[in-house]
Amino acid sequence: MESKQRTLTVRAFLPAAAIFALLGWTGLFAIVNFSEPSGGTRWAFFFFAVLGLTGLALPAAAFLNKRFPSNPPPNHVVILRQAIWAGIYLPTLAWLRIGRVLNLSIAILLIAGLVLIEMLLRLRERSQWKPE
């Protein structure tokens, strides 16, 4: 019994990316133009920013995983997780900017930490992978 592992295409992620981007950017537009800043709208701003940026990063993450293959090959959950990391990064920088604590070294350390977490997660997946 031979199992063929289907490679994921960028096209397979485009509907999800479009939904995330549409929801995120529409919500962000509504928050910015039709509400006043308060605690609830600030959290809605971050939520919609993460959705919108995840939608933009999803095709890029799928393309990079297809362009640079790895063992084990990433599944759709891994690619979505990587896009979510990218979507979380910029709203986190905006949140740090509100508190006036953002500088270049913190931005670099934050991206290095997110990359390290993803590398460790992929290392864990590789240690549990059993080719069939």
Descriptors:
mainly alpha; about 130 residues; 4 helices
Structure report:
This protein has 132 residues and is an all-alpha fold. The protein has one domain (10-127). 74% of the residues lie in helices and 0% in strands. Helix 1 (14-34) runs antiparallel to helix 2 (39-67), helix 2 packs across helix 3 and helix 3 runs antiparallel to helix 4 (104-128). The chain starts with 13 loop residues before the first helix and ends with a helix. 18% of the residues are buried.
Which helices and strands occur, and which strands form pairs?
Blueprint: H1 14-34, H2 39-67, H3 76-98, H4 104-128
Helix pairs in contact: 1-2, 2-3, 3-4
Q: Which stretches are low in confidence, meaning pLDDT under 50 for 5 or more residues running? A: none
- Which radius of gyration do the C-alpha atoms yield? 17 Å
N-to-C CA distance: 10 Å
Number of DSSP-assigned strands: 0
Q: Number of helical runs?
A: 4
